[in-house]
Amino acid sequence: MLLNEKESTIYMDHNATTPLHPEVLDAMMPFLEEYQGNPSSIHQAGRETRCAIEDARGIVADFIGAELDDEIIFTSGGTEADNLAIKGFEAANDNLHYIVTSKIEHPAVLRPYESIKRRLHNVIYLEVDWSGMINVSKLLFLKDTVSFCSLMHANNETGNIQPIHEAAKICEKCGIILHVDAVQSFGKIPLLVGDLGADMLSISGHKIYGPKGIGALYVRRGLKIAPLLQGGHQERDLRAGTENVPAIVGFGKAVQIAKRDMGQESERISSLRDNLMTGIAENIKDIIFNTDYSSCLPNTVNVSFLDVESDVALLMLDQHGIQASNGSACESGSIQPSHVLKAMGRSDEVARGAIRFSLGKENTQEHIDYLLEVLPGIISAIREDSQDARIRASNLSNR
Q: Rounded to a whole number, what is the distance in angstroms from the first to the last CA of the chain?
């Protein structure tokens, strides 16, 4: 198979970001061109944009099953939502006991925890098993000392869905506040805060074909957190600054589209994922799947190719018009192996050979067929070069 002129690239990095949906752009355009009022102004122009914000807030609240629309706080994205949940809770609650997270969280969670640890030394990190599942049962042994817990719903690198329901039951029983980072699962699988048992929940727009620079934090009514930004009274006094109206409107539209299409798309994409995993397993030797097939997002495949540097493989895939990644886009440029895969017990060599393929709306079976056509040759070529290099090094050392 060859790519046609209209399809010069195949994008398989949707866990990093997604293309803007045309319907989202259409919804945003009036608020870029026509409706320019400040939502805090009381005149007609302000009321028009305020109504648009509240409509979007209601759409998001309904989608995640929030009891009240004003439990949705719009932010600049998932990172700010995570930081607001973690730092905001710590700042608003004196004499906190230990706070807990896991070793496989996104940097937007791990780094706020590191900041708190440097000051207060009261952070606990939960381990994960070989399949990447968080050991939430440890919370039971910490019940008298823990005040707050932040865990991801689905891992951004492996796609593995975590036992949040189990964690929530323990947290509720022990009086622990639970924040869930749902940035990667939001819009891909059903997600209701009541079912999850989340007190706070972070979501983002650009993972669901919405605009970049917009996200939200669900905060259960009555929960006390402090703002990160000091200023006006926007967003229930929790997020000062004039709202990004076009992005909020686009976010709301993206959520509507996700609600409309999620069931059908999930089934279609999971079939493509299954075909991809089967094809890799049948055509390439010496691999380790880091995605747990029994509990994972419908669109994600993370696989380590032994004796392969993923950076080299990704460059060769890109030359063939296929765009994928080797982990979190936020960690791009790091020379360190994935902290997620290391926490799962993978060696540095295995972790450095990992590639993540994350599928989306525009991917088809033809794309999977093309990938499976070129990938075995790429992996084989890299391994042969690696073997030749080892032979040359051995010959030099024996002189």
A: 47
**pLDDT tens digits for range 372-399:** 999 999 999 999 987 755 554 455 555 5
The pTM for the full model equals 0.93
Assign 333 to helix, strand or coil.
Answer: coil
* CATH fold of 22-258: Aspartate Aminotransferase; domain 2 (3.40.640)
Q: Which two tokens stand for residue 331?
A: 């960690």
Residues carrying CATH 3.90.1150.10, the chain: 10-19+262-392
pLDDT for 399: 54
Rounded Cα distance between 42 and 79, Å, is 31
What is the Cα–Cα distance from 80 to 228, expressed in whole angstroms? Answer: 9
> Is 330 in the active site?
yes
Instruction: For residue 378, give the amino acid letter.
Output: I
What is the CATH superfamily name and number for domain 10-19+262-392?
Aspartate Aminotransferase, domain 1 (3.90.1150.10)
Paired tokens of 26: 């259409």
CA pseudo-torsion sign 112, 68, 167, 161: negative
- Any bridge partners for residue 300, and if so which? 358
Catalytic residue among 171, 174, 296, 330: 330
Neighbours of 178 (CB within 10 A): 24
